[in-house]
Amino acid sequence: MTKPQHLTLKTLGIAAVLAQGLALPTDALAGCRLLTADRVFDGETLLSNAGVLIHGGKIARVDSQDALAGSCGNKIAMGDATIVPGLIESHAHITFQNVRKDQVLAHGITTVQDTGGPLQPPEGGAGQLRLLSVGPILQAAGGYPLNIFSGGGAGGYDQIGLTLGSEAEARTAVQHLVDGGATAIKIALEPGGETGAPWMQPHGSNPVPPTPWDILPQAVATAIADEAHHPQNGRPVRRVIAHVGENIGFERALVAGVDEFAHIPCAPLDAALINQAANTAGLTFVSTVDTLASCTDSGTHLGIHSNIMQLAAKIVDCEAATPGQCAQILYGSEIGHDNVPWGVNGEEMAMLLHLTSGESIDFGDVLNVFKAITSKAGKHLGIDKLGTLSKGAPADVVAVRGNAFARFKLLEYPDLVISGGRLVVNKFK
């Protein structure tokens, strides 16, 4: 397998090209803010000696520092620093785990997809954490997640799970979730039994129930996806996210036609299923490799690591044959778990880089990791220009001293955070 040629890490300092912005009036904008740094990543390209002009809560322009000179009197000159779009967490449990939203925001995550918990409409985005809720996870009676986190029961729209018994109940639940503000629908297809998986550990005083656990029948899972994809009475279309950890749930999710896998499954997957998934246009996987690092296969870590490596390789092959018609992998760290940071996770970024880059790592691979936590994640969430610094995008910006492209860890402790044009953290004073 060969990959297209990219710039290497060694040439990072001279690899950037300058973006071309639209001309602005010579008079400085009122109520603006200009950020300049040695490195600016706009969601697609790394620029050198560039600046970001913010006005009215939006990105107004990205250009060279010389071109932006005089455009705004309110300037933060950062020097040897890296500016990136606000970072996006594609798998979190902020509400269910009572994680402080202001702390998540202060640590560089400006948008989260809250994948399981009380139903609530979208919130934040202008000085506060942008939170997109999917509401409770739709599940089989007696199954995951209520059997682990709430001791069973019927659940409800204010809990982590909601049980379904029929296709009709499934369609009604999807309608209720969408009407209540859910930005996606999540289903659980988890029979349990994966060694080392977080859901196989005791939670509180509740012992882990014997496996296999009941999961939604194929007909019910398919009805959920159909209702979300073909809504009635003017409801918007919604993506369907599946929690799966092994082959049975994985295949059932593929047959149902889900749009997203909340994790890279941690038990070894059949090669044929991996190939089918990689060649499914628009299908998205969220990494969460660090969260599931304890998953093992007969005493090894070959399960989840092997799955993501095989998946990434098959996606590369698919893109070579049919560009734009293949699956993708996005960054996700599952904020809410105690074993990962409640903000940017540099280790997750590093794992994503090393496990998806094939036999060698080049600068294009590094860019792909940054896209997976910015522009690609924003596009997947369906918010116009989210995760970019393009003109008209939400002015969500993060900056750190030093070169974040050479050291992901820097992003865990940002020196500047802006949400919707509002300054949240500024250590460049």
TrEMBL record:
Protein's recorded name: Amidohydrolase
Pfam families in the record: Amidohydro_1
Domain Amidohydrolase-related, residue spans: 82-423
Keywords assigned by UniProt, alphabetized: Hydrolase
Entry's Gene Ontology molecular function annotations: hydrolase activity, acting on carbon-nitrogen (but not peptide) bonds
